[in-house]
């Protein structure tokens, strides 16, 4: 199985979509059998098809092509739940300052709690 295929299967299953449902979300532009071939490493999508798949899964294209070993999130990037967090942060630059401060406060507080539990 290819890296793209592995990641496609992981994110598709995490979002609860069947191959048929994913194909439908892409308006049938990519067939069920081709999606299956990608997942099983028998085919590779063109960049245009990868963009369609990523958009249908509400996932950045970079998720499929980034080598997770080189990522700052290397231990979690392959965790399908983590992708949902990344998706929520896609528009972070457009958040108002109060929302940004609230998120930062939460993350700092969570770290303090985690650190105190490990002592």
From TrEMBL:
Domain annotation HTH cro/C1-type: ranges: 8-64
Matching InterPro entries: Cro/C1-type_HTH (IPR001387), Lambda_DNA-bd_dom_sf (IPR010982), TransReg_Diox_bact_type (IPR050807)
PROSITE patterns: HTH_CROC1
Molecular function as annotated in GO: DNA binding; DNA-binding transcription factor activity
UniProt keyword DNA-binding present: yes
Domain of life: Bacteria
One GO CC term, this protein: cytosol
UniProt-listed SMART domains: HTH_XRE
Keyword list, A-Z: DNA-binding
Protein name per Swiss-Prot or TrEMBL: Transcriptional regulator ClgR
Species whose genome carries this gene: Clostridium coskatii
UniProt lineage: Bacteria, Bacillati, Bacillota, Clostridia, Eubacteriales
């Amino acid at each position: 199985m290819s890296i793209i295929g592995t990641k496609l299967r992981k994110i598709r299953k995490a979002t609860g979509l069947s191959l048929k449902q994913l194909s439908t979300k892409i308006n049938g532009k990519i067939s069920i059998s081709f999606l299956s071939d990608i997942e099983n490493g028998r085919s590779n999508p063109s960049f245009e098809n990868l963009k369609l798949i990523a958009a249908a899964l509400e996932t950045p294209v970079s998720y499929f092509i980034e080598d997770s070993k080189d990522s700052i999130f290397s231990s979690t990037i392959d965790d399908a739940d983590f992708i949902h967090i990344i998706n929520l942060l896609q528009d972070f630059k457009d958040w108002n300052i109060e929302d940004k401060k609230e998120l930062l406060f939460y993350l700092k507080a969570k770290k303090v709690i985690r650190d105190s539990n490990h002592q």
